[in-house]
UniProtKB/TrEMBL annotation:
GTP 1 binds at residues 13-20, 60-64, 123-126. Associates with the 50S ribosomal subunit. This is GTPase Der. The lineage of its organism: Bacteria, Bacteria division Kazan-3B-28. GTPase that plays an essential role in the late steps of ribosome biogenesis.
Length: 448
């Protein structure tokens, strides 16, 4: 998402102190995934908050692991540090139930070195018995600790009051970026099974190390969006969690991520389905493509890690034929062979996005459309099981995707295979690369 607020506030703390619960409480919706499992939040999430007429962007960071033992933990720590260094104010969150921990002390030392305004919040204070347990956190040197319960909302309003007071004391906050375009951005969702390179491609497309990239399947659990400019066009890219095989999706965290993937697709205009060149298309990929088709979204097939494939002069043509055979139900979806890691043909992918958007918003003039359908019906009249249907008039009154309204006598007699035939004839004149065509049959007894 774009940062529209003047200020950036980052929530940090060791794992499982309730950062995502507080984030959801302040943002006002369930955006971060909640779990008692440490490390559930792996990426930095952003949300907008308004309190007492002041708006700010809130960042939910992964739990601080100051002694990372794996490349994944090292990447998480790097992203958290970037978010903290970019913030105007930091909410340092600790857990009153567990008391002051060595990890809290180490993290506080890191924060003090940055010299940024800090609000010390002590979470999980559900009940008056914790009122006298905050004093030990004074030793962190981050100011007066404020007790709160993110899950109940206790003390959150007082914390926000203090937060706003501190923000208003900050000189020269980030100026709001003037909106020069009233046209909404093209919304593009990156889809694919785990570990095909969605986050790597996302980072390449938006031009920064914005989303956690790791060889571990299922690394990206939350959907992340960011708007970038592509010439005179704005594109909003959304990176999604990988959709796992049916039956292998864990109850809880991964299941919620998969539901959010579908929700992200529903709000998108175009889906980029990533497949791995060396593995080809498997059942999961077909399932995702079917979901895209059911949602009537634009579709681009991006074959990733193409640089790792041994090739000769026939490789691309052979892979084209392979994709055509596998994806017969979306013959209009274009293919592009890329390397998200090196950036190979990523510019071509951007051009395909624009081309697909142009197709999605195509409105064929009614006269031309009726000529095409009329010629097709004359060459092959529609047949019904009980009585022959008759097509009177066609028009496109809705786009994204193009929706063809057919006035038909006995529309119930039109078989879906006949609509495929008509679509094929239309695409010979208007290819509409990357865009599906929707059909709307309206019962009519005459052309009028």
């Amino acid at each position: 998402m774009t940062r529209s607020a003047n200020y950036l506030v980052a929530i940090i703390g060791r794992p499982n102190v309730g950062k995502s619960t507080l984030f959801n409480r302040l943002v006002g919706r369930r955006q971060a995934i909640l779990s008692d499992i440490p490390g559930t939040t792996r990426d930095v999430l952003f949300g907008e908050v308004i309190w007492n007429g002041i708006d700010f962007t809130l960042a939910d960071t992964a739990g601080l692991e100051l002694d990372p033992k794996s490349p994944l933990e090292q990447d998480v720590l790097l992203q958290t540090k970037v978010a903290v260094e970019s913030a105007d104010l930091i909410i340092f969150l600790a857990d009153v139930r567990e008391g002051l921990q060595n990890e809290d002390k180490k993290a506080a030392e890191l924060i003090r070195k940055l010299g940024k305004p800090v609000l010390l919040a002590i979470n999980k204070a559900e009940g008056s018995k914790y009122n006298d347990m905050a004093h030990e956190f004074y030793t962190l040197g981050l100011g007066e600790p404020m007790l709160l319960s993110a899950i109940q909302g206790r003390g959150v309003g007082d914390m926000l009051d203090k937060l706003i007071d501190q923000l208003q004391q900050i000189k020269r906050p980030r100026a709001k970026k003037a909106k020069t375009k009233s046209i909404p951005p093209i919304k593009v969702a990156l889809l694919g099974r785990p570990n095909v390179g969605k986050s790597t491609l996302f980072n390449k497309l938006v031009g920064q190390n914005r989303t956690l990239v790791s060889p571990d399947p299922g690394t990206t659990r939350d959907t992340i969006s960011m708007v970038v400019e592509a010439g005179d066009t704005e594109i909003e890219f959304t990176d999604t969690a990988g959709l796992r095989r049916r039956g292998k999706v864990e109850q809880g965290i991964e299941q919620f991520s998969s539901l959010r993937l579908i929700k992200a697709l529903q709000s998108a205009d175009i889906a980029i389905l990533l497949i791995e060149a060396s593995e080809g298309i498997i059942a999961q990929d077909l399932h995702i493509a079917e979901i895209v088709l059911e949602e009537h979204k634009g579709l681009i097939i991006a074959v990733n890690k193409w640089d790792a494939i041994e090739k000769d002069g026939k490789t691309t043509a052979e892979y084209d034929r392979y994709l055509q055979d596998k994806l017969l139900f979306v013959p209009w979806a274009p293919y592009v062979y890329i390397s998200a890691l090196t950036g190979q043909r990523v510019d071509k992918l951007r051009e395909l996005i624009k081309e697909t958007w142009a197709s999605l918003t195509t409105k064929i003039p009614s006269k031309q459309l009726n000529n095409i359908i009329g010629d097709a019906a004359s060459a092959r009249p529609p047949k019904g099981r009980r009585r022959p249907p008759q097509i009177y008039f066609a028009s496109i009154r809705q786009v994204n995707p193009p929706t063809i309204t057919l006035k038909v006598r006995y529309p119930e007699e039109i078989h879906f295979s006949y609509l495929r035939y008509l679509e094929k004839q239309i695409r010979q004149h208007f290819p509409m690369i990357g865009s599906p065509i929707r059909w709307q049959l309206v019962k009519s007894s005459s052309q009028s």
